[in-house]
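U., I forgot to send this yesterday:
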Amino acid sequence: MTEKSILELRNITRTFPGVTALDDVSASFRAGEIHAIIGENGAGKSTMMNILAGELSPDSGTLHVNGRETTIGSPRQSQALGIRIVFQELSLCQNLTVGENVLLGPMAAQPALSHLNRNSAVRAATDVLARLGMSDVRADTPLAGLSVAQKQLVEIARAISQQVHILVLDEPNSALSKRETQRLFDMVRSLKEEGVTILYVSHHLDEVLALADRISVMRDGKLITTLDNGPDVTVDKLVTLMVGRSVNAAEQYALQCEVSDHPAETALEVRDLSVPGHIRHATFKLSKGEILGIAGLPDSGKDVLAEAIFGLLPRGGEVEIGGIRLSPGKPYHSIAAGMSLIPADRRSAGALLSMSVAENTVSAALKKFTRLGFMRGGAVKDIANRYVRELDARVASLGQKIATLSGGNQQKIILARGLITGPRVLILHEPTRGIDVGAKAEIYAILKSLAADGMAIMMISSELPEVMLHSSRVLVMADKIVMGQLTGAQITEEAIMSLATRSDQERAA
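Result:
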C-alpha cells in the first residue's frame, strides 16, 4: 500500500446553531487503504461525510484531493472527483427496478436524448450485483419487493458501478446477515487491491478491527487520534477513546431483560398470518410487559412481519389486540386499537426529515394538538419538551430539523412519535440500526422501562446480541415460517442460528 495521501482535511470546522459539529479537524487518507472512522452518534462523522458529498460546505479549513486544494460545492463535483458515498439511510428509487437503481448514476450522466442500450445496461447491472453475491436477484426485479438488506446491497452496487477512487461506506452492513457481510468485506478488500480508498464508518468495532488498516476516532466534533490497526488495538481501547472514559465493551449489553416465570395477560395475538411469498401461517402471542425478540436471516420472512401485523401489507390470518380484531390493509385501525410501529428505514419510512423535532414528535397524533384546523403551539411545545427530556434526546431546539440530528437522536424522536399515541403494543424493526454503543444502551433502557410499565414490545432485529440479551423470549423465523421459540437459558447464538438455518422440511422430519 502506498503512503501517498489521496484525500486530506485541513483544519475543517463546521457549526450549526448551538452545535459545533466539526472542530478544527485535520485528517489524511491514503490511496488504497481501508480507513475506519468511528465515534459515538454526534461525534461529527455524518457532517464529515456530507462535506465530502458536497451536501455541506465547511465554515473554515480546506480539502485536498490528490494534493490539490479542492472545493466540493455540490454532489456532482464530489462525484466528478471519483468520490462515492453510500449513506446508511437509503436513497434508492422504489418505483424503479434493481438494475435501473444500480445504473442510475451512469444513466443520469449521459447526454440528454442519448440512447440507452437496455440489454447492455441489464448485463452491466447483473455483473455488479454478482460481485456482491446477488446473482439470485434479477436486474429487472422491482426494487420495492426487496428486503432492507437487499436494498442496502443495491445501494452499494450502484456506488461501485461508477468510476470510484474514494468510497465512503456508512454503516454498510447494518441490516446484513453474516454471509452478506462477508461478501461485502470481500468486495471491500478487492477494491482496496485495485487502489480504491475505503472510508469505513461503523459502530461494529469487532468488524472494524478485522477490516481496517487504520482507525480514526472522533468525539464531540474533534478527531481524537488515528491509529495503525494492530494487536494492541482492542475493542475496549476503541470504546474508551470514543466515549472519553474507561468502559468495558460488555457494558453496552448489560441491560438484559428478566424472564418472567408467570405469563402475563395477552396483549397481541397473531393466528395463521400469511403474506404471499414472504410468510406462511405464523401463529404466536405477545404478553403485556414482555419484550419478544424476532430473529432470522434476511430471507426468513422476519423483515415483513412488522408491516404485515401493522396492516401495511396484504395478509391472511388474524391479528388481535386485547380481543379487538384488526382489519388487514388498514394501519389506522391498528393505531386506534393501540399499536405503534417504529420502522427499520429511518429515512424513507421513519423520520420526516424536512420537519422539526416538535413536528416529528406530534405527527402521529395531530388530532390531539389541533383546534379548528390550527396547531396548538403551546401544547405541541409542552409534549415535545416532555419526550425530549424523558428520552434524553440531544437537540439544539425543538425547531431543529430532524435531518440534522445524529442517528441515535433521530431514533429517539421517532420513538417519541410512536409513544405519543399511548400504545399498548409497540413493534420495533431494527431499533438500534446504525447507532453507537452509548445510544444503544439508552434505547435498551427505555424499552426495558416501558416493558416494566406493562407495554408489550416486539423487537425484530438482525443483531443477535441485541435479540439474545434484550428479549424475554425469542421467536426464530426461517423458510417463511416461525421455526421455533426460545426462552431463558435456551437463548444462545448457537440455538438461534440452528433454527434460522433450518428448512420447513427439516422441521417436519
